């Protein structure tokens, strides 16, 4: 029987491959490549207190927000109303019929769960691009170092405070700052429409985040390059870059109804971490510095300018104090603008992103190491955005083209010994500072990290296909492998038309793999006995076949 390659070029977005004439199938065996979309995104959400907490599809829920939300569908081509987070994994694709001009697509994922603080994750899917995004969520029952949470229940009468209510976090869990919320006597607790919420108890939660702790910084909602920010004066822009001096989440409920507003202004006091950098002066934050305060809506991911606050000395500590009549996340943030290679992402007057070229003597592309890296503001651990942190292949002559970069701030490239956010490892290289918007090429001498690189990995090249209902399938999908050391499912890369190269492997050892499709997981265990693994008769589960 002859075999031909059949590439689907018409997609009917119904989650099925489509119909092939039976007479045609009788004469030919059809090979189907499942890479139907050119713009793909995989988002892996981490709970740093334990990834097993996210197993299944009930721990977290997801909602897609943003102007481009109607342009994306599930990986099965279904409406995003059916989108699920399973084991912390979300797959999105761009519907080409809704993106005729083939522009980058920006959406915001609103992620929530009973035991988690609601957050948002910005996702930008570039032109003909497979986008990989990782993000942290905050487990309210087990916050990690750098995050401190306080709960309190206070008595009120018919939705009105009869005495001053104060809730304050402590300086523990390696946090170096704290937050306090004060509510005056006679304050009404109101819902989103400004209506009084009648009740005799108010439940309060305050979560404070250290601006110098990596785990806390990675939990920042929406990342430090948000998609939409309202500036002082009301201008809405999409090219702001934040440098934080600390942030806090404040939530309240009366009788199960979320408090959104108050009849009187409440006071929020935040201490300033003495290790926080003022990027406008290049020095540590000090008494008299003015820091802009921003509010964040977890309902739409919008950041709004709230006001300026001067750093003052209270009880011998640097602090800022401000008032508000509505609840949200609040963030002490210096800010600047961004430069971009694309006109729709930024003002060209902010500069042009640079291209980095790496010098790593003695490490060829065939001997490359797969390591986690990020871009941070000079002298800090603050990642410039979610997209700044990725697992890359490192070798001599490797180039990195920056696309959307903070302007007017010096950056540093940081490389870790681990290969994922969940397995970050130790910092093994930090580049000299450079201007990310200076244009042209920046040469990075990374020779100092050669001696710190992990041993050269065993690579296994996998090529496989299988039959589904008498059709040969060459899958294209994201692949995860169980990491026994850190007890989580690690993203290993993208299988393209049945091929992938796996790094850091061992021969004659069983490995468990997962793929996700249409909100379901599929698992398989394989033991490799050679570095070139070809399987033309791969057993594709019937359940998965029936979905294709």
Strand content bin: over 45%
Instruction: Give the beta-strand count.
Output: 43
Indicate the percent of residues in helices. under 10%
Query: What is the mean pLDDT?
Result: 86
Main sheet characteristics: 10 strands, mixed
Task: List the topology elements.
Layout: E1 2-6, H1 22-27, E2 28-33, E3 40-46, E4 61-65, E5 72-74, E6 89-94, E7 105-113, E8 116-125, E9 130-136, E10 147-155, E11 165-168, E12 179-183, E13 189-190, E14 201-209, H2 214-217, E15 229-230, E16 236-237, E17 240-254, E18 257-258, E19 261-271, E20 277-278, E21 283-284, E22 290-296, E23 303-310, E24 312-314, E25 317-326, E26 329-340, E27 355-359, E28 369-377, E29 390-394, E30 399-401, E31 404-406, E32 410-416, E33 427-430, E34 434-435, E35 441-445, E36 460-468, E37 471-474, E38 477-483, E39 488-495, E40 499-502, E41 510-517, E42 520-527, E43 532-538, H3 542-547
Parallel strand pairs: 1-2, 2-37, 3-9, 15-23, 27-35, 36-43
Antiparallel strand pairs: 3-6, 4-7, 5-6, 7-8, 10-14, 11-12, 12-19, 13-19, 14-17, 15-16, 17-18, 17-26, 19-25, 20-21, 22-23, 22-26, 24-25, 26-31, 27-30, 28-29, 28-32, 32-33, 32-34, 36-37, 36-40, 38-39, 38-41, 41-42
């Amino acid at each position: 029987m002859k075999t031909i390659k059949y590439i689907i070029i018409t997609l009917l977005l119904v989650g099925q491959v489509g119909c092939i004439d039976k007479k045609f199938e009788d004469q030919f065996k059809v090979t189907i490549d499942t890479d139907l979309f050119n713009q793909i995104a995989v988002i892996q959400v981490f709970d740093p207190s334990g990834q097993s907490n996210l197993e299944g599809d009930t721990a977290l829920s997801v909602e897609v927000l943003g102007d481009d939300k109607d342009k994306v569908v599930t990986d099965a081509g279904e409406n995003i109303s059916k989108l699920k987070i399973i084991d912390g994994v979300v797959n999105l694709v761009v519907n080409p019929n809704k993106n005729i001009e083939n522009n980058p697509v920006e959406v915001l994922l609103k992620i929530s769960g009973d035991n988690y603080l609601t957050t948002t994750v910005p996702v930008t899917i570039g032109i003909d691009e497979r986008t990989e995004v990782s993000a942290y969520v905050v487990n309210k029952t087990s916050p990690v170092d750098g995050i401190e949470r306080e709960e309190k229940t206070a008595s009120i009468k018919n939705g009105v405070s009869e005495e001053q209510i104060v809730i304050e976090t402590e300086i523990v869990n390696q946090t170096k700052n704290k937050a306090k919320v004060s509510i005056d006597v006679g304050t009404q607790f109101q819902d989103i429409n400004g209506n009084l919420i009648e009740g005799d108890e108010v439940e309060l939660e305050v979560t404070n985040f250290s601006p110098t702790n990596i785990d806390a910084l990675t939990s920042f909602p929406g990342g430090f390059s948000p998609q939409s920010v309202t500036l002082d004066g009301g201008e809405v822009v999409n090219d702001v870059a934040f440098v934080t001096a600390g942030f806090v989440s404040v939530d309240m409920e009366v009788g199960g109804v979320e408090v959104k507003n108050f009849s009187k202004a409440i006071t929020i006091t935040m201490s300033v971490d003495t290790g926080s950098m003022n990027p406008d002066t290049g020095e540590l934050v000090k008494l008299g510095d003015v820091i802009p305060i921003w509010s964040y809506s977890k309902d739409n991911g919008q950041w709004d300018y709230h006001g300026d606050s001067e750093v003052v000395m209270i009880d011998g500590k640097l602090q800022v104090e401000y008032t508000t009549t509505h609840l949200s996340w609040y963030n002490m943030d210096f800010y600047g603008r961004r430069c971009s290679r694309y006109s729709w992402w930024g003002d060209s007057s902010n500069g042009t992103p640079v291209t980095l070229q790496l010098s790593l003597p003695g490490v060829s592309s065939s001997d490359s190491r797969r390591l986690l890296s990020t871009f941070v503001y000079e002298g800090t651990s603050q990642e410039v955005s979610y997209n700044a942190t990725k697992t890359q292949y490192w070798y001599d002559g490797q180039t990195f083209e920056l696309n959307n970069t903070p302007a007017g701030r010096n950056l540093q490239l940081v490389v870790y010994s681990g290969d994922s956010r969940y397995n970050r490892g130790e910092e093994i290289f930090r580049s000299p500072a450079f201007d990310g918007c200076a244009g042209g090429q920046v040469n990075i001498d990374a020779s100092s990290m050669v001696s710190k690189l992990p041993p050269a990995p065993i690579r296994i090249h996998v090529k496989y296909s299988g039959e589904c209902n008498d059709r040969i399938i060459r899958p294209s999908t994201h692949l995860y492998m169980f990491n026994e050391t850190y007890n989580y499912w690690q993203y290993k890369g993208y299988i393209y038309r049945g091929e992938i190269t796996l790094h850091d492997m061992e021969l004659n050892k069983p490995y468990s793999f997962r793929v996700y499709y249409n909100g379901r997981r599929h698992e398989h265990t394989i033991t490799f006995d050679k570095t070139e693994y070809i399987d033309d008769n791969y057993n594709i589960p019937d359940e998965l076949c029936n979905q294709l």
